[in-house]
């Protein structure tokens, strides 16, 4: 491994904001990054050493891009895993490993993995299509999730009564019990090839109920220490069982009776770790690089209370993005703006995020609400 | 001013490590950066939207590059100011302003500016050449500094006795009294076009006696509060008198009898502010961007004790750079590596820096010494 030398050819599948923030960090390690993304205006385009426009799901495209790299990582799971497996057989390092991506791509396989490994998760059934959905024995309300290609709240359907059958997905899905949870929490864990493993402290998430996107994230959690420890241990257990190399984001529900249920996994940097750039001694992006280069993992402790909000495209606006109120929030101390280089906004598109740092947790939350009221992405 | 929109064309004169770290920060603000640098392998080359290889001191080259920008900034003073003045007259924003760059380019003009504005500085004389040096009335030992083009300790000659005349520079210079100082300190101050002005806390520097480069920087200073306040006020006074827009790094001597003397100025991000990336709420790079885009200036307070060391090319090694010991220092908590993307090392070349953060100042210093002993840039 020749990290630090600038002649290690590292490819990222996907050129969105996660790749962009990974590149910002990779600069410090002299890592030259090449990117494959279908969008000619991808956020990474002008920041990488070499940009290839092309499909992430097409075998030939991924294989041909991959052949030119020494190491490949991802910033999105929806990639052609067959091509990655072939590249892996040919000696190219692929982190996370193709078998891990394959498992996580399919929420059905994820759920079965949890079951086989005694990892607590909501009871579920696998179904083939809409017809089998109707025959499932679950009690209303329950949740249907597409096994593949769901993201950012898409591919999720709530079934409250028989009336919801007609709008259900007619594709392979999981159906799972509706969890009336107290909180959604997340732990990001990193594992390097030497087997070193480190969890970030638990964060708490608040979702935008309409878009089903993380809208508000608070770090660190103030849940009781035993619950936090359990969450961190669970995340570490999963990473260890998967033998993943890289980051693993583990989203969890905390039920009203204090149980933790694993919701889903992402084998990459994740929205629930953006606050780590300013809020923790090592950021999730640096940690991912350390993991895939088999470097010692960094110190995940929090520096300060941090609250992160996503800047989502305002409802009702579509077109060239205009950022209202940014000047105003820059007057506030401890406010960090991260824009993603996206030219066009549309409702709920992730256009950026803002992290608010304050030693006083309550003040950080209040500032975050102020930021949320002030900044609007319009046209 | 259309910061945040990605369609503001910002040009940097110079594509070295300062430009590189500026770009890392500019990514957060969607600012698209174009770079002019004579080196085809400049550290910024693959990170900017558009790279032009060309001379920074040639009128036509700078003018033609500049015509394509909306705003120009610098990461090195040795640029063609005539071209910048013409561009400024034609309506392009140039920050820092050409008149400020012209003044600071010439250590003689700098010294006269200090004198005219009652800014304490070491007594000096302006001389034309080696012959006038011999006639100067200063007592041995004294210092000869070239008026132009000195940097990183180059262009400085110590005159201890008549024997040193023969090796003195035969060019317009300043000669100034040898200051037997207690400490070298620095303050970076920022000023935006609205006139808002903010100083970073005082830092203390230790120089490599052989290379005359900053080797070891400690933030914040532990000097008495009144001395620190005086240093910050002096820096602010100079920035205000210059009406500079952007950063101004002010290097100072603290004499053994507790007086502050201004040594020299740099109108740009500076080596004495690198620790601000992790050590302060706002980094010097973000502050420079805020200043030139006339945004509210950020919070300059320290987050933690920080010690910065430059990674200089090891004496006796020249060629493709190899970084010894980096893996070892990454095992230590609070250690941040910044490599500059330079392929080739040579003795004392600035290849990167490392910042060490620790709430315990003494521990930070000890870790920094450990880092210094461990990391070697060889071939």
UniProtKB/TrEMBL annotation, chains A, B:
<dbReference type="GO" id="GO:0004638">
    <property type="term" value="F:phosphoribosylaminoimidazole carboxylase activity"/>
</dbReference>
<dbReference type="GO" id="GO:0006189">
    <property type="term" value="P:'de novo' IMP biosynthetic process"/>
</dbReference>
<keyword id="KW-0547">Nucleotide-binding</keyword>
<dbReference type="GO" id="GO:0034028">
    <property type="term" value="F:5-(carboxyamino)imidazole ribonucleotide synthase activity"/>
</dbReference>
<comment type="function">
    <text>Catalyzes the ATP-dependent conversion of 5-aminoimidazole ribonucleotide (AIR) and HCO(3)(-) to N5-carboxyaminoimidazole ribonucleotide (N5-CAIR).</text>
</comment>
<comment type="pathway">
    <text>Purine metabolism; IMP biosynthesis via de novo pathway; 5-amino-1-(5-phospho-D-ribosyl)imidazole-4-carboxylate from 5-amino-1-(5-phospho-D-ribosyl)imidazole (N5-CAIR route): step 1/2.</text>
</comment>
<feature type="binding site">
    <location>
        <position position="107"/>
    </location>
    <ligand>
        <name>ATP</name>
    </ligand>
</feature>
<dbReference type="Pfam" id="PF02222">
    <property type="entry name" value="ATP-grasp"/>
</dbReference>
<dbReference type="InterPro" id="IPR016185">
    <property type="entry name" value="PreATP-grasp_dom_sf"/>
</dbReference>
<comment type="subunit">
    <text>Homodimer.</text>
</comment>
<dbReference type="InterPro" id="IPR011761">
    <property type="entry name" value="ATP-grasp"/>
</dbReference>
<feature type="binding site">
    <location>
        <position position="184"/>
    </location>
    <ligand>
        <name>ATP</name>
    </ligand>
</feature>
<dbReference type="Pfam" id="PF17769">
    <property type="entry name" value="PurK_C"/>
</dbReference>
<dbReference type="InterPro" id="IPR005875">
    <property type="entry name" value="PurK"/>
</dbReference>
<feature type="binding site">
    <location>
        <begin position="263"/>
        <end position="264"/>
    </location>
    <ligand>
        <name>ATP</name>
    </ligand>
</feature>
<feature type="binding site">
    <location>
        <position position="145"/>
    </location>
    <ligand>
        <name>ATP</name>
    </ligand>
</feature>
<dbReference type="GO" id="GO:0005524">
    <property type="term" value="F:ATP binding"/>
</dbReference>
<dbReference type="InterPro" id="IPR013815">
    <property type="entry name" value="ATP_grasp_subdomain_1"/>
</dbReference>
<dbReference type="InterPro" id="IPR040686">
    <property type="entry name" value="PurK_C"/>
</dbReference>
<comment type="function">
    <text>Catalyzes the ATP-dependent conversion of 5-aminoimidazole ribonucleotide (AIR) and HCO(3)- to N5-carboxyaminoimidazole ribonucleotide (N5-CAIR).</text>
</comment>
<keyword id="KW-0436">Ligase</keyword>
<comment type="similarity">
    <text>Belongs to the PurK/PurT family.</text>
</comment>
<protein>
    <recommendedName>
        <fullName>N5-carboxyaminoimidazole ribonucleotide synthase</fullName>
        <ecNumber>6.3.4.18</ecNumber>
    </recommendedName>
</protein>
<keyword id="KW-0658">Purine biosynthesis</keyword>
<dbReference type="GO" id="GO:0005829">
    <property type="term" value="C:cytosol"/>
</dbReference>
<dbReference type="InterPro" id="IPR054350">
    <property type="entry name" value="PurT/PurK_preATP-grasp"/>
</dbReference>
<dbReference type="GO" id="GO:0046872">
    <property type="term" value="F:metal ion binding"/>
</dbReference>
<dbReference type="InterPro" id="IPR011054">
    <property type="entry name" value="Rudment_hybrid_motif"/>
</dbReference>
<dbReference type="InterPro" id="IPR003135">
    <property type="entry name" value="ATP-grasp_carboxylate-amine"/>
</dbReference>
<feature type="domain" description="ATP-grasp">
    <location>
        <begin position="111"/>
        <end position="293"/>
    </location>
</feature>
<dbReference type="Pfam" id="PF22660">
    <property type="entry name" value="RS_preATP-grasp-like"/>
</dbReference>
<keyword id="KW-0067">ATP-binding</keyword>
<feature type="binding site">
    <location>
        <begin position="176"/>
        <end position="179"/>
    </location>
    <ligand>
        <name>ATP</name>
    </ligand>
</feature>
